Fold:
Amino acid sequence: MTKAVRVHKVGGPEALVYESVDVPAPGPGEVRIRQHAVGLNFIDVYYRTGLYKAPGLPFIAGNEASGEVVAVGPGVTHFHPGDRVAYYHNLGAYTGERNLPWEKLVKLPDHITHEQGAVLMLKGLTVWYLLHKTFKVEPHHRVLIHAAAGGIGLLACQWARALGAHVIGTVGSREKAELAEANGCDHVILYNEEDFVARVKQISRNEGCDVVYDGVGKATFPGSLSCLKPRGMFVSFGNASGPVPPFSIAELNNHGSLFATRPKLNDYVGTRKELLEGADTLFAAVINGKLHVPINHAYALKDAAKAHIDLESRKTTGASILKP
Structure:
């Protein structure tokens, strides 16, 4: 038996129930992990509320974590007890121990802590594919990153800056503005006090941005389209304020022959080769100092509901973890 946080009925933070669950011996191709840290993400909220549909009820929440291998099932040769590992996998992370297919795991380098590993596998890999695959950021690009002081935002600002881009970020408070500036933003816009579209046009001398990375959704749309230069790309990768409403594809034409995409991590790490490419690139960026991993909040696993309340009320900055 181990302790886990399960959802028996979708709803508010009170839907997160801390209880005992049974973990069987790992089956063929599976690895059992004793978890050291679990990442907290807005996608966890989407599943808890039912915005994203879980395969069934009850389900264990959470999508990324790190820990050590304690047992392997028949046929597993790539991992052994004692290995330090991390993973991204849909649901099941809010627990003390669990079994996973070995193909979903990556080994943590010695210089990456369990806490860092727990927040890099979803947030870090998301930033990797956004900046390297969805739109390949280069030194001459101007990028706009919404929610620049969040877990993904701070990593994205750092990495975009390291790639030589001119980085503009939006945040909700002066404290968050200072944090974004310290993590690579050339300009920070307080969206509660300023019209972010007007400020982007002012900063860019009416040229606009090459790409907008928007994990906010409803509250920043369609303003994000107005921040782009002709043939720029709108990358909608999250719904923190609610989903982007349906819109006419003609809007992309009206704003200058824009491109728009709604990517998800699963489609960029769908194969073992892609997962290892992303993880290797990400870990190298941390080890060589291009990225530091700001973990600003830690909660006990039993306090997952409080963590969700803080996340949804915008009280958190950077990454947050749960400790089993």
Summary: Residues 92 and 230 are 42 Å apart (CA to CA). The chain has a mean pLDDT of 96. The first strand starts at residue 2 and ends at 7. The two ends are 13 Å apart (CA to CA).
